[in-house]
Amino acid sequence: MTTTVMLSAEQDEIRSVARSFLTARYPSDRIRELMATPAGFEESSWREIAELGWAGIAFDEDQGGAGYTVVERCLLMEEMGRALCPAPYLSSGVLAADAVALAGDTAAGREVLAGIVDGSVRGTLVAAGDLCSNLSPAGEMVVRATGHSFELIGCGGLTLDGHTAQLLVVAAATDGGEIGLFAVDPDAAGVTRTPAPTVDETRKTAVIELAGAPARRLDSGDGTAAALTAALHRGTVSIAAEMVGGARRAIEMTVSYMHEREQFGGPIGRFQALKHRLADLHVRIDAAREGVYAAADAIADDRTDHIPAMVAAAKYSASIGYVLTTAEAVQLHGGIGFTEEHDVGLYYKRALVSAETLGNAADQAERVAVTLDV
Looking at the structure, do residues 235 and 322 belong to the same domain, yes or no? Predict the structure, then answer.
């Protein structure tokens, strides 16, 4: 599958290493085994991901990172989507890490970020309601200050890897209406984590509720709401990249099947009508990929005025494209595509939940319209 997105030799090497690693670690039978476990992933593979430096790929070297940008992280996410990677990378290495990094330079923030970036601490971001679907960062969470201590109260909604994270990074509103970012020990008093399965069993979620849970403040208190919105933008373009990777893999699986499945004396791939359907999907996903990397480039170059609309457009096209592509892939596989045993159904289920994560297609269309004032 070709594209006009041009990669440097170094970026292509990152993509190649990621594909080799993920293909070896996550064959479909292993994915299915992990789906049946409460955690949904294996700690040993997470440690390997950390050793590869992926959790810190988009952070500066003085932050413990590899010194690359969101663009290179999108390359990793695209390959993770292709492999249906179940590791808590989006929750920890993207959402939690970006929120802490952008919320201000504090001693507590640096300490937490160091652990997330080196992979020794698996965090998750509790913000903006169910699956971070709203760009209002605090959601329903509020903070109560008692002297120099903080307690958090509220329901954070459906949260990625919320039941297994070793640290909760929580956005909450103060009495004065400002937004703060806080670290909460998930084992502390007042924390309730309830696993909440979705149709996508390859990615686990839980509902987080806090009832006076003790917290440490991580942000500097200056511009935190804007910083968290920027973190959500980065997370949005990252999951859009993952969706594109999954959609491209679904197309490849379908092409392969159409070369194998015979009807009326030959492979069904020879039928012009089916070729047209696949060509339409190819063009749609290729266009979505262009949008993802255009938005990632805008973030990397700090083109602030362009980022909100470009990110929303990328997520919109990736959401529509992934759901449509996988639904078509299920149909084009015939009866076998509707069975639990075939992998194409796993991609369809991942598409359905991913399309709702960090804002669904309707949300993204509205954000584009508001940003462009149309």
Answer: yes
Between strands 123-126 and 167-173, the pairing is parallel
Please count the CA atoms within 13 angstroms of the CA of 338 that sit on its side-chain side: 3
DSSP for 9-65 reads HHHHHHHHHHHHHHHHH--HHHHHHHHTSSS-S-HHHHHHHHHTTGGGTTS-GGGTS
User: What is the CATH classification number for the domain harbouring 158?
Assistant: 2.40.110.10
Residue 197 domain-assigned (yes or no):
yes
- The answer to whether residues 292 and 330 belong to one domain is yes
Q: 239 with 360, same domain? A: yes
Residue pLDDT, tens place only, 109-142: 999 999 999 999 999 999 999 999 987 898 889 9
Is the pTM higher than 0.90? The answer reads yes
**Do the domain assignments include residue 152?**
yes
Which residue bears the tokens 């917290």?
215
Per-residue CA distances from 113 to 68, 132, 183, 239 (Å): 16, 20, 11, 21
Locate 89 and state its tokens: 């990378």
Domain boundary among 97, 117, 137: 117
Return the amino acid letter for 104: G
Query: Is residue 1 situated within a structural domain?
Result: no
289 closest CA partner among 318, 322, 250, 327: 318
pLDDT digits (tens, 9 = 90+) for 320-374: 999 999 999 998 877 777 778 889 999 999 999 999 999 999 999 999 999 888 8
Q: Rounded to whole angstroms, how far apart are CA atoms 330 and 342? A: 9
C-alpha distances (whole Å) from 206 to each of 38, 144, 160, 168, 356 are 11, 24, 7, 12, 15
